[in-house]
Amino acid sequence: MGDMTNLPIRKSIRLKSYDYSGAGYYFVTICTKNQVPLFGSIVDGEMHLSGHGKIAETELLSIPSHYYDIKIDKYIIMPNHIHIIIIVGAALAQPAYGADAGTKETGRASAPPTIGNVVRGYKAGVSRKIGSPVWQRNYHEHVIRNEVSHLRIWEYIDGNPVTWIDDRYYTH
């Protein structure tokens, strides 16, 4: 095995000591590798999914059937990235906004997966269906801590296609 002392040190983008399997709302952004616009195009402020975009959407909507206590609250698939609000655990019953609200009683022995587990599984499923690696190495996430933040993010997702030309991920 090679010398690992010269590998770059990657800074963690996760909150230290935060339980990402805890009940709550999470805003996740995942970008395509090299920000290639694989998923479609924006025409007159409206997203039109390509074949790859339809695969990404189908896999996204199937997440709750693959993971215990997970719901997709809101999403948008853009040409080279996606935004998702994922709800984990007891937050399904009522908003917990980042607080550990306990475990939902379902008779299952397993705990809810972490956001990392969900994103990793989603990325792998899309890449497998498309037939090649699609995604950048990591993803961005934000713990939604209150209703005001939830509403602001919801509105951002809704308006993302209209403001595409001003988007930080915009490519022509």
Q: What summary fits the major beta sheet?
A: 4 strands, antiparallel
Alpha plus pi helix count: 4
Instruction: Note the gap between the termini.
Output: 42 Å
Which CATH class applies here? Alpha Beta
Mean pLDDT over all positions: 82
Predict the CATH topology.
Alpha-Beta Plaits
Low-confidence sequence ranges = 7-14, 99-109
Q: What strand line-up does the widest sheet have?
A: 4-5-1-6
Secondary structure: helix percent: 25-40%
The whole-angstrom Rg is 17 Å
> Going by CATH, what is the homologous superfamily?
Transposase IS200-like
Assigned CATH architecture: 2-Layer Sandwich
What share of the residues does DSSP label as strand, in percent? Answer: 15-25%
- Report the count of strand segments: 6
Describe the structure.
The protein is an alpha+beta fold and 172 residues long. It is 26% helix and 22% strand. It has one domain (24-99, 111-166): Alpha-Beta Plaits, CATH 3.30.70.1290. It has helices at residues 51-61, 63-66, 115-130, 147-159; strands at residues 24-31, 40-43, 46-49, 70-77, 81-88, 140-144. Strand 2 and strand 3 form a beta hairpin. Helix 1 (51-61) runs antiparallel to helix 3. The longest helix has 16 residues, at 115-130. It is globular. The model is unreliable at 7-14 and 99-109 (pLDDT under 50).
Protein topology:
Layout: E1 24-31, E2 40-43, E3 46-49, H1 51-61, H2 63-66, E4 70-77, E5 81-88, H3 115-130, E6 140-144, H4 147-159
Antiparallel strand pairs: 1-5, 1-6, 2-3, 4-5
Helix pairs in contact: 1-3
